[in-house]
Specification:
382 residues, alpha/beta, Quinone Oxidoreductase, Chain A, domain 1, Rossmann fold, 2 domains, 6-stranded parallel beta sheet, 17 strands, 23% strand
């Protein structure tokens, strides 16, 4: 099969790899019909995530059709059209029983915190991802869901991570009716978080980024008030000024490890990798939220120490909530919203790129060229 493979920082290419096989009776093999490049894939692409090995296939957002199932799989049959959450989880451990699918205890021997993720280095279990023609899906009775006939393929694809993660980020913010919500980052997860904040009762939604085309998307897709931090001396002071000097009620960090905004911090973390990620967005969130406010962290960070203003967070009495999204837990409510016409996740998509041209897709996404917000990958067999 054809598959994207990692060849080192800023280097990916399409190669022929052996077709995946059933390794456990609970496995299924899925022929990928649509995949996507996620903003967090760029952390891998840039060499930010430890133990990303040569030859690894990225891609934790994908949908497709079941080709073959293992002998114990009962809920799927060949030919079923499925959407697959980015979390790999067993469904029966202590954490899965509590809905913490992203913290499954049985799928990642390399970590005590994180469960398994498709295509996200050996720190997340070493599973190959869906930027390929075929992918092995473990625990096939637990993770994948059959796509309803009425649901568009690209809406389903956005539910495998980006929109579900943004929705979860808004949930973690514990938004109360009328709250002012600040979203840092106008990538797909930030857009989804901003749009979801309205569904949860926000009275005002603000999005901050430094790319005008992404801010335009935030106004169009999320109906948000937007600010370009490059045009202001101090984002925190700006946030205080526009909230009667109290601060926002909820701040959502949808940027993570490679945040711009402070040259020294960006170089020491994203370039020299002396920290687990640039703390700029998280520190802006801590400083911009009011005393007693809530912070939700959706941006991905590495495990190393970062220069986060934790003392300020403690002294302000902030509540900080974060996790990798337990994607499947969000699907019932999101499907209701889509069917009712309240949201259309596929509207985030800006580019559709053949798998054979994925290297160009990564370059466009990394360099923020051609107005790219969310790229979808189309395998040749789709």
């Amino acid at each position: 099969m054809k598959a994207m493979t990692y060849r080192g920082p800023y280097k990916v290419r399409v190669e022929e790899k052996p077709d995946p096989t059933i390794q456990h009776p609970n496995d299924a093999i899925v022929r990928v019909e649509r995949a996507a490049i996620c903003g967090s894939d760029l952390h891998l692409y840039h060499g930010m995530i430890p133990d990303t090995r040569i030859g690894h296939t990225f891609g934790h957002e994908f949908i497709g059709r079941v080709v073959v199932v293992g002998s114990s799989v009962q809920t799927l049959t060949p030919g079923d059209r499925v959407m697959v959450p980015f979390n790999i989880f067993c469904g029966t451990c202590y954490f899965c029983a509590r809905g913490l699918f992203s913290n499954c205890h049985n799928v990642n021997a390399n970590a005590t915190a994180l469960g398994g993720i498709y295509g996200y280095s050996h720190t997340a279990g070493g599973y190959d991802g869906g930027q390929a023609e075929l992918v092995r899906v473990p625990f096939a009775d637990v993770g994948p869901s059959i796509i309803p006939d009425w649901l568009d393929d690209e809406d389903a694809l956005m539910l495998t991570d980006a929109f579900s993660t943004g929705y979860f980020g808004a949930q973690l913010g514990d938004i109360a009716e009328g709250d002012t919500v600040l979203v840092l980052g106008a990538g797909p997860v930030g857009l989804a978080a901003a749009r979801s904040a309205w569904l949860m009762g926000a009275g005002r939604v603000i999005v901050v980024d430094h790319l005008e085309y992404r801010l335009a998307k935030a106004r169009e897709f999320a109906f948000a008030e937007t600010y370009n931090f490059a045009e202001h001396d101090d984002v925190v002071v700006l946030m205080k000024k526009i909230t009667d000097y109290l601060g926002v009620d909820v701040a959502i960090d949808a940027v993570g490890a490679e945040a711009d905004g402070n040259l020294v911090q960006h170089i020491t973390s994203a370039k020299l990798k002396l920290q687990g990620g640039s703390p700029i967005a998280l520190n802006w969130a801590i400083d911009s939220v009011r005393k007693g406010g809530n912070i939700s962290v959706m941006g991905a960070y590495g495990p190393l120490f970062s220069a986060v203003k934790f003392g300020d967070a403690m002294n302000k009495g902030l509540t900080i909530r974060t996790n990798q999204a337990p994607v499947k837990r969000q699907w019932p409510r999101l499907l209701e919203h889509i069917q009712a016409g309240r949201i259309s996740p596929k509207d985030m998509i800006t580019h559709r790129i053949p798998l054979d041209e994925i290297a160009e897709g990564y370059h466009l996404f990394s360099a923020k060229l051609d107005g790219i917000v969310k790229p979808v990958i189309i395998p040749p067999s789709a």
